[in-house]
Amino acid sequence: MPTIEPVDEVEIWASILADPLHRPPSSSTIPLPSQVEDYFNYVYNNYAMKIDHFVAEPQDEPWRGRYLGELIPKENWRRGPRVPRKRRIFPSNPTYFGDMPSGSRCGKLQRRINNDHWTNGEVIKLVEGVETYGVGRWTKLKSHYFSKSVRDPTHLKDKWRNLLRARGVPCNSERKVVFSLIFYTAISLDQFHRI
DNA sequence: GTAGGGCTATCC
DNA sequence: GGATAGCCCTAC
Questions:
Q1: How far is the CA of A28 from the C1' of B3 (A)?
Q2: Its pTM surpasses 0.85
């Protein structure tokens, strides 16, 4: 176990942390604040460091301007009305009728159920929901933040993935490494080198 | 229920 | 023509 000096406060953005303990349900799941605290207790043997609180809203500037602002698309960017879009459906889809050539990857065209761009308000709710419940709890996030919305849990997952991509965050196995570095950097570079 | 990849339309 | 957004399919 590493030994370091305790600090008064550690600022961590739970929304951008990977799972340092490789906890279930998957390696790409971002931990809840309580899990991060568990991790600190694990690494520092329950005594060396104590997390007083998680900084959700910095006092010096609005939280949305600092973090959400990086995730929310710019105004008037791909926000125009969309023409009706279609996509292919396959025999496994209950709405599919008719035969499809054997081995073909082409299905029949069907109009999409929903075709709208995400609004700023929706993105804000999504990010707030992720910070509250963590990444990977899409059904719970849907029921609490999008109960009356056409967005289903899969859509929430997809939008979160797009937000991370737009921010330059890898969505593959590299995420764990990238976020671990952010995690340690939040402690301080000096302490990171001593871990 | 969720993650990852595929597909289509749109933007630049 | 490549990159991106959003929805859908499929495996686990």
A1: 9
A2: no
Q: CB neighbours of A147 closer than 8 A, spacing ≥ 6? A: none
What's the pLDDT band for A119 if we cut at 50, 70, 90?
confident
Q: Which of A90, A116, A142 marks a domain boundary?
A: A116
In the structure, how far is the CA atom of residue A111 from the C1' atom of nucleotide B5, in angstroms? Answer: 21
The total number of residues shown for chain A amounts to 195
Q: A143: burial class by Cβ within 10 Å (0-12, 13-18, 19+)?
A: exposed
Look up the domain containing A175 and give its range: 14-78+117-194
Give the range among A30-44, A47-61, A113-127 with minimum mean pLDDT: A47-61
Nearby residues of A101 by Cβ (< 8 Å), 6 or more positions away: none
Q: How far is the CA of A117 from the C1' of C4 (A)?
A: 12
Which nucleotides on strand C sit less than 7 A from a protein beta carbon? 4-10
Q: Which residue is nearest to nucleotide B8 (CA to C1')?
A: A87
